[in-house]
């Protein structure tokens, strides 16, 4: 970052400074040096350690070899005298910039003011003071000054002549200041203000633009008569050495009522063009109309470098002398002259001068030719070459995202679009030539104002995370592998007999088998140290919390290699969490599927074990579907894709995984979404590994209200079809946009699957579908999915399709998307008794959405033969 950049940032930050100033006293950051000599260094400025300053540009270098010590801005030799949080910064200009007082300004200052221009409009800020030590300090109110382009001269050259700025390749004064002799500007200071002339001619320059044109002044040609004939005559002529008259930006204009006017010259061959204008009565003439009555205009040829104005009158104005004694002719910048009737008779119109635009180019080569001669090639860094239309030679332009003078080394400076355009809702990242937007930690969206912006990520609503708490000493475990830790957990569990029995019934035998493959965790994942994870989560900072439940917290972690991970940390809980934790490790270590969240490793050093997972950037499906704060509605295509991927993952768990796995807690909050909205099924704490010779196992009923398979609830027999039921509820949520269980809905609509089934029975499916996604094109597809969802939530498990069937039907629907759909009849034909809402009578709703049924339902369990499981 050059000085320019630094100042740019300082100026910009000044806006923020004023805001900070109201809340913060002028002091340094804690643990930072607050003074350099007797100069206060308030944050965001800072000296000493890197953390003391808010960014590089706010670094103050304190040189203690001086007495008293002196403060310097960043690594420059600009001495800082005073820093005020009101937005003022006083420096000593000790590096030889031209410093002017209020009646003049230096090249540096010009640029700086240009940079600040947008500040004026955007922030209405009157920040600014930069002084020079040889002069009194002064302050400039930026609202007064506004220059257009950062039009700098070559370093060491005069930047202006009077108030005309002279950007390189033009130059005045010493010979090195202009790129070639055609670009020399003579500044005549005998005028007040001084006047600029092109090379050695007497052609006055008004304005120089880096876009390839300059504005000069020229007088007009005239031809006047009195009653005795021609009284005065001036055949205006001009000859330019190099720069042609712009044929696009100028017009030849003639005024008179008995007038033929010509502009003539040489273009290698002679050329002549002109126009005629007549009028009989002054009343025929109209102000502003230059179309042949009193005034006429015509274009001029391309490449004209000299011209000469001549006139002819048919009647020597004898019929119009009263109101028009003269012919006038002149070349003028298009739009710079507007015709007034009075111009026909005003005595002193002959003294008028008009601006003319000349086109300028560098050299007489094309871009291609010029590039072959790098030594003389005029376009510097971050610029490109263009071949203009008018005449030979080329021009340079700054690349997109840069501004400044392309003819100067480092003349093209990055535009800080973040401040000029303010394109972002979130964090704006300006990089040379470009910029991008992102959202800060804890927010989601694309960050663009014209895009989805940033909205706060809502902490998942009472999500529960099963965890294990081990009552073992902290230090004991540090070097153990996951599985051995699990083993210890297992031994711990043996202390309670009932639970041990349960545990074994629920897969303990398999766990034991796992223990023989001790390497499990280290094979698939990594053992993290407590330190690593503390750093990754910024000491479990609350801003890193992704989700929080009764049993624990999930943090977002950033590993030293930049990888993002999710870290599950349990709060101290009970033995049931031990079981769930073991489950999760075992289950996840069996699975490798792209739609199942990956366990990356674990940490054993802490009293509370930590599990490290892949990070799903977009959070839970629940948030995306049910969070009103997320302004954008999830499209049906995305919903279908997520449904298919979830179905595939479950199908894989049921049929491809060995041993098969029943998830047992399929719900929206357990479906995570990565950055491209790929579904990741998570939370395997409640999952069951199914012994290969069993198709159903008896367990403590576990699940989530609203998703729980009623058959399982009644029989305690867990089968794969319980997941199918829960998945059916997920499908219904995707279709309707309603929550699985809502106590805000009327009582008979509380349970979504029952509400959905009865809506279908009454032929009211269309009423319940999510209006935000239904359209003509997808209605048939939605109906098909509704039919499938209906089958998934049948009361009898055996009537439900398998996950494999569900997945392939959904995929089929996607593939057939464009085909014509048969009319799906969603009316229920067979009579199926709707079960009473099972939650109404048997279960206490404790405010959480997860629950386990009490042990009284265990008495009916068919004993599960632990040892005969394999
Ligand atoms: C503070 O300034 C120093 C020196 O320029 C720099 O290395 C450091 O990164 C800056 N600190 C911050 C937080 O940007
Ligand atoms: C402090 O300033 C002196 C005199 O200009 C210079 O010689 C010295 O290198 C500076 N010290 C540091 C640490 O920059
Ligand atoms: C810096 O400016 C503040 C506010 O104008 C003033 O109170 C203070 O005395 C100044 N300090 C120095 C060292 O000039
Ligand atoms: C600016 O400086 C010039 C030359 O040093 C001096 O003549 C003029 O009076 C100064 N103007 C102001 C406003 O200080
Ligand atoms: C330049 O100075 C002249 C004379 O003082 C003034 O009329 C004109 O507006 C000035 N132009 C600019 C751009 O300041
Ligand atoms: C700048 O213009 C002057 C006057 O025409 C000329 O003497 C000098 O050579 C020019 N400089 C360059 C670098 O061509
Ligand atoms: C120079 O031209 C630019 C662009 O046309 C205009 O904004 C500026 O005011 C002009 N300056 C003078 C001194 O005429
Ligand atoms: C017409 O103009 C000429 C030249 O300026 C002058 O000599 C003559 O007296 C004028 N005639 C009348 C009638 O004004
Ligand atoms: C031209 O005449 C107009 C009014 O007739 C007057 O305002 C203006 O100053 C005159 N200009 C010159 C250069 O004599
Ligand atoms: C181009 O310019 C160079 C140097 O100014 C000159 O020697 C050469 O004759 C020019 N070529 C043409 C085709 O005008
Ligand atoms: C938003 O604006 C930027 C810059 O104009 C553009 O690149 C981007 O494509 C726009 N995004 C949308 C979603 O319109």
UniProtKB/TrEMBL annotation:
InterPro entries: EGF, EGF-like_Ca-bd_dom, EGF-type_Asp/Asn_hydroxyl_site, EGF_Ca-bd_CS, Growth_fac_rcpt_cys_sf, Kinase-like_dom_sf, NOTCH1_EGF-like, Prot_kinase_dom. Residues 540-814 form the Protein kinase domain. One of its GO terms (biological process) is cell surface receptor signaling pathway. It catalyses: L-seryl-[protein] + ATP = O-phospho-L-seryl-[protein] + ADP + H(+); L-threonyl-[protein] + ATP = O-phospho-L-threonyl-[protein] + ADP + H(+). Its main location: membrane. Keywords: ATP-binding, Disulfide bond, EGF-like domain, Glycoprotein, Kinase, Membrane, Nucleotide-binding, Phosphoprotein, Repeat, Serine/threonine-protein kinase, Signal, Transferase, Transmembrane, Transmembrane helix. SMART domains: EGF, EGF_CA, S_TKc. It is found in: Membrane. Residues 414-446 form the EGF-like domain. The chain crosses the membrane at residues 465-490. It comes from the Eukaryota. Residues 847-863 have a biased composition (Polar residues). GO terms for cellular component: plasma membrane. This is Wall-associated receptor kinase 2-like. It comes from Durio zibethinus.
């Amino acid at each position: 970052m050059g000085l320019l950049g630094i100042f740019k940032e300082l100026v910009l930050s000044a806006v923020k400074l004023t805001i900070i100033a109201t809340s913060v006293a002028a002091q340094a950051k804690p643990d930072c040096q607050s003074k350099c000599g007797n100069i206060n260094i308030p944050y965001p400025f800072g000296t000493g350690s890197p953390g003391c300053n808010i960014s590089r540009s706010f670094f103050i270098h304190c040189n203690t070899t001086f007495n008293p010590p002196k403060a310097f801005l960043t690594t420059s030799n600009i001495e800082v005298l005073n820093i005020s949080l009101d937005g003022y910064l006083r420096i000593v200009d000790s590096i030889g910039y031209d410093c002017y007082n209020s009646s003049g300004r230096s090249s540096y200052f010009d640029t700086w003011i240009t940079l600040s221009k947008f500040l004026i409009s955007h922030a209405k800020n009157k920040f600014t003071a930069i002084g020079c030590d040889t002069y009194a300090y002064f302050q400039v109110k930026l609202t007064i000054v506004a220059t257009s382009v950062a039009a700098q001269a070559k370093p060491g050259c005069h930047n202006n002549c009077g108030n005309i700025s002279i950007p390189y390749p033009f130059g005045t004064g010493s010979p090195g200041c202009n790129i070639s002799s055609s670009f020399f500007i003579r500044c005549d200071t005998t005028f007040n203000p001084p006047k600029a002339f092109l090379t050695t001619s007497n052609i006055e320059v008004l304005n120089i633009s880096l876009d390839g044109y300059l504005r000069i002044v020229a007088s007009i040609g005239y031809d006047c008569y009195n009653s005795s004939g021609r009284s005065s005559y001036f055949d205006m002529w001009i000859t330019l050495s190099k720069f042609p008259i712009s044929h696009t930006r100028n017009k030849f204009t003639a005024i008179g009522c008995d007038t033929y006017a010509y502009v003539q010259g040489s273009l290698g061959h002679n050329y002549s063009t002109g126009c005629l204008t007549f009028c009989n009565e002054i009343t025929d003439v109209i102000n502003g109309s230059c179309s042949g009555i009193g005034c006429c205009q015509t274009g001029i040829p391309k490449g004209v470098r000299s011209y000469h104005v001549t006139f002819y009158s048919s009647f020597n104005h004898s019929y119009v002398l009263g109101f028009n004694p003269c012919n006038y002719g002149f070349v003028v910048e298009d739009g710079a002259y507007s015709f007034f009737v009075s111009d026909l008779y005003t005595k002193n119109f002959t003294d008028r001068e008009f601006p003319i635009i000349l086109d300028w180019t560098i050299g007489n080569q094309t871009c291609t030719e010029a590039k072959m001669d790098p030594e003389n090639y005029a376009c510097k860094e971050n610029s490109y070459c263009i071949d203009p239309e008018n005449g030979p030679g080329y021009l340079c332009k700054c690349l997109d995202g840069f501004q400044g003078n392309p003819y100067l080394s480092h003349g093209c400076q990055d535009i800080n679009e973040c401040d000029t355009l303010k394109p972002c809702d979130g964090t704006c990242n300006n990089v040379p030539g470009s910029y991008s937007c992102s959202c800060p930690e804890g927010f989601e969206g694309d960050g663009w104002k014209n895009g989805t912006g940033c909205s706060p990520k809502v902490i998942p609503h009472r999500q529960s995370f099963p965890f294990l708490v081990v009552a073992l000493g902290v230090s004991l475990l540090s070097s153990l592998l996951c599985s051995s830790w699990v083993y210890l957990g297992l031994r711990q569990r043996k202390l309670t007999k009932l639970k041990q029995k349960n545990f074994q019934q629920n897969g303990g035998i398999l766990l034991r088998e796992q223990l023989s493959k001790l390497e499990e965790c280290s094979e698939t994942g990594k053992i993290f140290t407590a330190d690593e994870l503390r750093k990754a989560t910024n000491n479990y900072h609350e801003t890193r919390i992704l989700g929080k439940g009764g049993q624990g917290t999930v943090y977002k972690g950033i590993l030293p290699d930049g990888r993002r991970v999710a870290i599950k940390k349990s709060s101290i809980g009970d033995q049931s969490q031990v079981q769930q934790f073991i489950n999760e490790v075992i289950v996840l270590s069996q699975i490798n599927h792209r739609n199942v969240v990956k366990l990356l490793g674990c940490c054993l050093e802490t009293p509370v074990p930590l599990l490290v997972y892949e990070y799903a950037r977009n959070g839970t499906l629940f948030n995306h579907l049910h969070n009103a704060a997320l302004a954008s509605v999830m499209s049906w295509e995305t919903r279908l894709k997520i449904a298919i991927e979830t179905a595939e993952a479950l199908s894989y768990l049921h049929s491809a995984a060995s041993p098969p796995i029943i998830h047992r807690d399929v719900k929206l909050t357990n479906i995570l979404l990565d950055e491209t909205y790929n579904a990741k099924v998570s939370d395997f704490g409640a999952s069951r590994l199914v012994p290969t010779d069993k198709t159903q196992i008896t367990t403590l009923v576990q699940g989530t209200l609203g998703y729980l398979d009623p058959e399982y609830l009644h029989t305690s027999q867990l089968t794969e079809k319980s997941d199918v039921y829960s998945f059916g509820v997920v499908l219904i949520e995707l279709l309707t946009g309603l929550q699985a269980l809502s106590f805000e809905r009327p009582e008979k609509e509380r349970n979504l699957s029952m509400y959905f089934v009865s809506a279908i029975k009454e032929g009211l499916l269309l009423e319940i579908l999510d209006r935000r996604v239904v359209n003509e094109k997808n209605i048939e597809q939605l109906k098909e999915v509704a039919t499938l969802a209906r089958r998934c939530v049948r009361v009898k498990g055996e009537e439900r399709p398998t996950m494999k069937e569900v997945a392939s039907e959904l995929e089929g629907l996607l593939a057939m998307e464009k085909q014509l759909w048969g009319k799906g009849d969603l009316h229920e034909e067979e009579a199926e008794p709707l079960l009473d809402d099972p939650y109404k009578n048997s279960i206490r709703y404790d405010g959480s959405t997860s629950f386990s049924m009490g042990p009284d339902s265990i008495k009916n369990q068919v004993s599960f033969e632990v040892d005969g499981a394999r």
